[in-house]
Amino acid sequence: MPGRRVFVLALPLVLGAAVAVPAADPPVETETLAPCPHPRGYVCYRASAPVAVDGDLKDAAWEAAPWSDEFGDIEGAKKPKPRHRTRVKMLWDDEALYIAAELEEPHVWATLKDHDCVIFADNDFEVFLDPDGDNHLYGELELNALNTTWDLLLTKPYKDGGRAVTAWEIMGLKTAVKVDGTLNDPSDTDKGWTVEIKWPWKGLTELASEKQVPIPPVDGSQYRINFSRVEWDVDTANGKYTKVKNRPEHNWVWSPQGVIDMHRPERWGYVQFSTAKPGTAAFKPDPDWTVRDNLHRAYYAQHAHRQKHGKYAPTAADLGLKLPADRLGVETTRSGFEMGWTDDKAAKPRYTITHDGRISK
């Protein structure tokens, strides 16, 4: 993915434990200027029993949790359906968020064993989490079938000049993997592998303050989250798996991004926490989704305008999006901008967005 490759190519620029990415106008794809449908949502129920993080999803607590929709291609329905099924479940209690994943895979393999190495060089499972939904300060966790992990904190998306802090560790994190088959053995056919994650609330406090969102959540709280599965095409030779040369990875995700980049937090899905009996609560779409989407479209249009004209657009009308000028306010300088969306007859904007993509209410 573009965001991933920026990180890898920037490795020689490591200063301490962070990777520097030069600030520049982000890419502006056609998809980012068009209205985006509401992302997927999942209702996460409280665990009815203790969750043993061992990779086995047959616990009583997990039996009560619903499966998510199956993953699709990162670009959405315009691309073929993934050849292997991937789905997730979530639970929560006073201590942590629990995530379970089931990855169908006829040939389970993994090679990487060092913590905080670039895990997506193997087939992997990934979690992206931004509790307050402001697009900045979010966490990422990757793990392979050997249960080797890479946890990192993003100050903001790579496209906005963000830095990946690889020294960051999720406090109290616990993960487990169970392989249904044999690992690294091309001579047989496997069924797949399962993942279990315990992400404690104390490991989320660095990503958002309790003034922005309640941590732990309360009934009805919503966080932004997405999941990704990286899958490489492989050949077998001399009893080993080898990746097919010069062939990019497949990126299968829970909530489609529209573009090949997981580091577009505005496109992630929603997890809604519930204290109701499992299976009885309905997901409630974000009532502010259209406003948030309009501001993100305006953000991309501003960067497209500067790429073409050398400066940001001074008014909403100059963006070419047909957004109401009386709702979208624009303030610019030579190096940045801030735009706000104001409701009818309101004195202050309901949401604002800045040139580096941070959206706030």
TrEMBL record:
Alphabetical list of Gene3D superfamilies matching this protein: 2.60.40.1190
Which UniProt key words apply to this protein? Signal
Position of the signal peptide: 1-23
Residues in Carbohydrate-binding domain copies: 53-212
The highest taxon in the source lineage is Bacteria
| Molecular function GO terms recorded | carbohydrate binding; hydrolase activity, hydrolyzing O-glycosyl compounds
InterPro entries, per database record: Carb-bd_dom_fam9
Looking at the Swiss-Prot or TrEMBL record, what is one Pfam family this protein matches?
CBM9_1
> Biological process GO terms, please?
carbohydrate catabolic process
Name listed for the protein in its UniProt record: Carbohydrate-binding domain-containing protein
